[in-house]
Design a protein that fits this description.
This protein is an alpha/beta fold and about 230 residues long. About 35% of the residues lie in helices and about 20% in strands. The chain has ten helices and nine strands. The strands form two sheets. It has a six-stranded parallel beta sheet with strand order 3-2-1-7-8-9, sandwiched between helices. A three-stranded antiparallel beta sheet has the order 5-4-6. Helix 9 links the parallel strand 7 and strand 8. Helix 6 packs parallel to helix 10. Bound molecules: adenosine-5-diphosphoribose. Adenosine-5-diphosphoribose (APR) binds next to helix 1.
Length: about 230
């Protein structure tokens, strides 16, 4: 059985990272148009760097939870027939041990030089003074984050996997942002079983064959155990 899993901010909530659209979420406190668009970065790079620097620094204070760890078990059980696509830019899936992982919206712990188009693992702050380790130029390093209006990464690979999967599982995502919100339709059109695991019904719940609602650290391990135990 080929499985594609899509995760969103909800899988990292119980690790202590804020989601975006919950009442205490990032977009409840900040205007995404002022922080998560290329235009915002061009207008005020220092403000955008400060927002992502704070989120990058917070990664040092959090750890993967039982839901991240359950997906590592699922990958071990299904091997090459498993693909994990995350909208999250945190590093909790890889720290839990996930291997075949696609960060479709980029990564906080990566920096992108717009002068020489190289990307670099990055743990510290970025600023308009940061020099690129490859070309040495300053002022052209940006967070390696896919902002609104930009094309998510590795979409061809994701769409190929959706077109031939038997089971599509969405975890901790509001279904509010495309193209990720449309993945359930692509999987369903390919004949896959679709299930939503979320704290509460999302914008797209009605598009799924099935759903389990509750905290990810409870419902994801339980569902993974069911899947692994299936004859
Ligand atoms: N367990 C399971 N689900 C949870 C939990 C939890 N403990 N806490 C919150 N959720 C659910 C919420 O009910 C919500 O449906 O997680 C979802 C989080 O939704 P969003 O905050 O919209 O996050 P996400 O879906 O990942 O956003 C998608 O939008 O702003 C862009 O690029 C950003 O990748 C992000 C994209």
């Amino acid at each position: 059985m080929k499985i594609v899993v899509l995760t969103g901010a909800g899988i990292s909530a119980e690790s202590g990272l804020a989601t975006f659209r919950d009442p205490d979420g990032a977009w409840a406190k900040h205007d995404p148009q002022k922080l998560a668009t290329p235009e915002a970065f061009a207008a005020d790079p220092a403000l955008v760097h400060a927002f992502y620097n704070a989120r990058r620094a917070q990664l040092r204070d959090v750890a993967p939870n039982e839901a991240h760890q359950a997906l590592v078990r699922l990958e071990a059980a299904f091997g090459r027939d498993f693909l994990l696509v995350t909208q999250n830019v945190d590093d909790l899936h890889e720290r839990a041990g996930s291997k075949d992982l696609v960060h479709m919206h980029g990564r906080l712990r990566s920096a992108w030089c717009r002068a020489c188009d190289t990307r670099h693992d990055w743990d510290d702050d970025l600023s308009t003074e940061t020099a690129c380790p490859a070309c040495g130029k300053t002022g052209l390093m940006r967070p390696d984050i896919v902002w609104f209006g930009e094309m998510p990464y590795r979409m061809d690979e994701i769409l190929r996997a959706l077109d031939c999967c038997d089971l599509f599982i969405a975890i901790g995502t509001s279904g509010a942002v495309y193209p990720a919100a449309g993945f359930v339709d692509i999987a369903a059109n390919a004949g896959a079983e679709t299930i939503e695991l979320n704290l509460q019904p999302s914008d797209g719940t009605a598009l799924f064959n099935d759903y389990r609602h509750g905290a990810a650290t409870r419902i994801v391990p339980a569902f993974v155990d069911e899947l692994i135990g299936r004859p």
